[in-house]
Amino acid sequence: MTDVLLEIKNLGIEFKTGEGTVQPIRGVDFFLKKGETLGVVGESGSGKSVTSLTVLGLLPEKTSKIVSGSIHFEDEEITHYSDRQYRKLRGNDISMIFQEPMTSLNPVFTIGEQLSEPLKRHKKMSKKQREKAIVDVLKQVGIPRAEQIIDEYPHQLSGGMRQRVMISLALLCEPKLLICDEPTTALDVTIQAQILKLMKQVKQDKDMSMLFITHDLGVVAEMCDRVVVMYAGEIVEVAEINELFDNPLHPYTKGLLASLPTNNDRKSKLYSIKGQVPRPNEIGEGCAFANRCPFAFDKCYAKTPPAFSEGDHLSKCWLQQPEGR
Questions:
Q1: Where are the CATH 3.40.50.300 domain residues in the chain?
Q2: Interval 56-66 mean pLDDT
Q3: CATH classification (class only), 4-93+175-320
Q4: What is the reported pTM?
Q5: Residue 279 above 50 pLDDT?
């Protein structure tokens, strides 16, 4: 597919722990088209962030290892890039916005000093040119008095302003792919809405692709074209955004959608999926969601389901098996 920017095939990742080796990512497959926003949703512990960090080569070398599969970016395999190759890629062709701006920005360097780093690494610019580019991108993301802010430190800015700085940092080299790892989680609702609106506008202006990682289905509905649902280190459903909300196939997706609050449910308790995401060392044979699934039957506990498809809508659930149970 010539319009595919990022493709992950059968990705498996192992981690060494004090209790032995575990595999938090098991056979992940998805692709991201050029100009598309792909949402990756799931509860904490589903493997969303680990997958995104793998794309950028940011997993710890001593304790993690890719044991299967491949990652292709612009038709080039980057699965086992060297540190030098990844440094050339990061911040230039692929950038990432992390979920907590206060811990992502260095407290002892000014905003201007931190924003100048990707330009020094990837662009041949004079100091004056770098300063102009930084001021321009700060203005672009809606930061007032940008000329003064470049001399200030992160603690002098509000949470919303710090997150705008993180967005401007990711945009400086005009990447082809922007990975957003829950970028609005630490912000209040009004600031969250502003940041989401800003990111949609920036993506449109720069014609970028975006991988948007979140646990908030409301944000997914606002931002994404297609959605990948992850559970316990694997993908359980993939669909266009409208198809997912109108016709969810996997019981886990149905549970996530049922957990969303509505105006009619103010006087009743919110629905929640019973149990919790299993730890990687707790996953055995069969479907990983079976112990929490209200529709589980014998086959679910004995054999892992493959991906069944209805057109472009994929679901890993034995209930979707064409010939029935």
A1: 4-93+175-320
A2: 93
A3: alpha beta
A4: 0.91
A5: yes
